[in-house]
Backbone:
């Protein structure tokens, strides 16, 4: 049995440790099949009740080099001018895990499973120490990437999708999830113009070949497909990221404004 | 949560490098603690019972799992007799139940033992009474293991691949 790809359909590889009465956890538990923003996706963190917290969680998703951080910076300025308290949180940025993840990435000992679990640990740390306290205090949390990045990367690497979704059952569903959508051609040029292609972002660990450009295209293509397949499941608001920074920002602001202030009371522009 | 996930990461690493390869080679793997430790400890720390079981669903189910059961008083006495300094997390000090390490240990490990008791039925753990003498325990353990391992075979099975291949 390959522990990385348990196949629930055969029963042989799925949850060998598990009591047969324990069903895989459904991700969607709402009456209409939709998890509301600000609720846990799955079983959550029992010792951290989050119901009724006033803050809002906004996730900006999209693949490497799509322009997330630029958009988040602009969004933050705009929100702060409007008088909202804003904090940012970003993938692998937890003080607890960042050094460990860097060390692990630079060694050759990391495998699919430990990769996933290190990311999940980092996320859990930021959830407990940054995201939940900020939501409790009424902040707007702008998340540069969210669990969908982890689901996409691990999905491409062949980790069981149901297991991943159960693992991230302790995550909070964002109130808004923007997905910056791009094609590989545009993405390749954008990345090459800025900082160049990097080992992990090119999926070199998947051994598609020695050519980083070809590997980047193959890997990012698969990642984009993986993201696209999650769009409905997680209610992405898909934003065309091939446009100029300003056009994208306008669209984000319009949608955020409509969500935060549906009556237009606080609208300044 | 981070405590639970870090241990799971460590376990995944050991599973793929230290446990699965020898199993493939037909060897016996003796694991000092297994996923059951995580089930008992993490749940005591407030992690969801089902979530942690699903988390570890990538683990290999042991052919035999032995649980050395000991009353909490015996456990505390043994540790203190050896003047072991109780570790912060081992004593569950992170939970803030008591500022006294021994008292905290007693409370925390007491809860952990209650969780273990549930695991015995759930996963069919074989219980060894660990308050008995080491010799007696070892005799029992050997009997239990003998049921699973052929010890009669005197002939060493040589690898079926030619040496000079």
Residues:
């Amino acid at each position: 049995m390959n522990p990385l790809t348990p196949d629930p359909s055969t029963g042989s590889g799925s949850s060998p440790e598990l009591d047969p009465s324990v069903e895989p956890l459904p991700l969607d538990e709402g009456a209409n099949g939709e998890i509301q923003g600000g609720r846990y996706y799955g079983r959550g963190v029992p010792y951290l009740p989050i119901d009724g917290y006033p803050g809002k969680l906004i996730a900006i998703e999209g693949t490497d080099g799509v322009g997330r951080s630029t958009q988040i910076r602009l969004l933050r300025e705009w929100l702060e001018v409007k008088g909202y308290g804003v904090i940012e949180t970003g993938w692998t940025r937890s003080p607890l895990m960042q050094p460990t993840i860097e060390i692990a990435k630079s060694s050759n000992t990391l495998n699919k499973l430990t990769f996933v679990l290190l990311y999940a640990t980092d996320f859990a740390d930021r959830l407990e120490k940054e995201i939940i306290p900020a939501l409790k205090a009424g902040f707007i949390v702008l998340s540069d990437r969210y669990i969908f990045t982890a689901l996409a990367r691990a999905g491409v690497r062949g980790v069981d999708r149901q297991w991943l979704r159960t693992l991230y059952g302790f995550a909070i569903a964002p109130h808004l999830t923007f997905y910056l959508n791009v094609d590989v051609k545009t993405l390749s040029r954008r990345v090459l113009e800025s900082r160049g292609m990097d080992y992990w972002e090119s999926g070199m660990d998947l051994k598609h070949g020695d050519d980083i450009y070809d590997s980047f295209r193959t890997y990012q293509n698969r990642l984009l497909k993986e993201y696209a397949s999650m769009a409905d499941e997680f209610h992405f608001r898909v934003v065309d990221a091939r446009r100029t920074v300003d056009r994208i920002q306008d669209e984000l602001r319009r949608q955020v404004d409509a969500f935060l202030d549906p009556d237009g009371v606080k609208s300044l522009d | 949560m981070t405590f639970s996930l870090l241990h799971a990461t460590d376990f995944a690493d050991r599973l793929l490098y230290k446990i699965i390869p020898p199993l493939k080679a037909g060897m016996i793997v003796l694991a000092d603690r297994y996923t059951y430790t995580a089930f008992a400890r993490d749940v005591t720390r407030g992690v969801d019972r089902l979530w942690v079981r699903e988390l570890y669903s990538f683990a290999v189910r042991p052919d035999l799992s032995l649980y050395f059961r000991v009353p909490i008083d015996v456990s505390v006495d043994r540790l203190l007799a050896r003047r072991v300094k109780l570790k912060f997390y081992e004593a569950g000090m992170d939970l803030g139940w008591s500022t006294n390490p021994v008292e905290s240990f007693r409370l925390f490990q007491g809860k952990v033992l209650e969780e273990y008791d549930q695991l015995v039925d759930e996963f069919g753990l074989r219980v060894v009474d660990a308050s008995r003498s080491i010799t007696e325990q070892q005799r029992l353990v050997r009997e239990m293991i003998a049921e699973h391992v052929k010890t009669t075979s005197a002939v060493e099975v040589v690898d079926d691949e030619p040496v000079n291949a």
